[in-house]
Amino acid sequence: APQGGVISPLLSNVYLHELDKEMEQRGHQFVRFADDFVIFVKSKRAGERVLQSITRFIEKDLKLTVNQDKSKVGSPTRLKFLGCLITTVNGVCRYRPSKEAKAKFMRTLKRLTKRKRAGRFEDIVKEINSRTRGWINYFGTGFIKSFVKKVEQWLHHRIRQLILKRWKKPHTKISKLMRLGLDMDSAKRIGYSRKKYWRLSKTPEVHWVITTKRLYRWNVVPLPQLAESAYSRY
After folding, report:
1. Which band of pLDDT confidence, cut at 50, 70 and 90, is reported for residue 234?
2. Hey, how many other C-beta atoms are within 10 angstroms of the C-beta on 67?
3. From CA 37, how far away is CA 27, in angstroms rounded?
4. What is the 8-class DSSP label of residue 1?
5. Is there a contact between 79 and 39 (Cβ–Cβ < 8 Å)?
6. Could you point out which of 15, 143, 177, 181 has its C-alpha 20 to 30 Å from the C-alpha of 33?
7. What is the dihedral of CA 58, 59, 63, 66, to 10 degrees?
8. d(CA 7, CA 12)
9. At residue 3, does pLDDT exceed 50?
10. 8 A C-beta contact, residue 124 and residue 132
11. What is the pTM for the complete model shown?
């Protein structure tokens, strides 16, 4: 099955069941999701020993290849697992998205909101919503509220930029902005402006007509509310 396919986790669970039994027989405490797993031991020396022996079992008995770059011994009080950074503060375990997970999310949204992207605006919004819902539902129980607010502000600028780019010609911009409620003089300033689209997306005039509420009405998902809903379910 291709990596990332729907059936991949199922096949991993079937094939790695023997690994689960091996670790249980050894008395190891572990957590596994598909082919990613963490084994908890009492010391660094024990961790190094277990890493070697489990790697040997996987490669010799199960005939699989262990990714040496991702396999390491580390502290259980600061652990990266499945895109999460898990920390322990005063005996309380907390987790949040890792820097890499955040950066990947931002790259995805940037790709989805390219100025020159073709397709219906409604379809683009649906794809953005699908990605943001998936990411927030996955990381929703972590500490993401402040991050999500910043992402939404940035994302709305990207969407405004995309809209302005699609209007292209000055007279089209002026007409569209006036239809949304902007006065003629302000609409002309935007329509005939030589500023880059990103700078235009941050102007007070554009914000006044393409507001956050209007983007919500155009079916852009409100990210802070989505994060709050995801957090409250747990």
Report:
1. low
2. 8
3. 15
4. -
5. no
6. 143
7. 80
8. 9
9. no
10. no
11. 0.81
Q: With 90 as the cut, is the pLDDT of residue 230 above it?
A: no
Give, as one character, the DSSP assignment of residue 59.
I
Residue type, 234: Y
Q: What is the CA radius of gyration of the chain?
A: 24
pLDDT-derived band at 142 (thresholds 50, 70, 90) equals confident
Beta bridge partners of 233: none
What is the Cα–Cα distance from 60 to 23, expressed in whole angstroms? 15
Higher pLDDT, 181 or 14: 181
**Residues 112 and 151: beta-carbon distance below 8 Å:** no
97-117 average pLDDT score: 95
125 torsion bin: left (phi>0), alpha (psi -120 to 50), beta (else): alpha
Length of the chain: 234
Cα(171)–Cα(192) distance, integer angstroms: 8
Instruction: Enter the DSSP assignment of 140.
Output: T
Integer angstrom CA distances of residue 59 from 52, 54, 55: 11, 9, 6
Q: What Cα–Cα distance (Å) separates residue 56 from each residue in 50, 62, 203?
A: 10, 9, 60
Burial zone of 9 (CB within 10 Å; 0-12 exposed, 13-18 middle, 19+ buried): middle
Q: Which band of pLDDT confidence, cut at 50, 70 and 90, is reported for residue 1?
A: very low
Distance separating alpha carbons of residues 132 and 114, to the nearest angstrom: 16
Task: Give residue 59's pLDDT band: very low, low, confident or very high (50, 70, 90).
Answer: very high
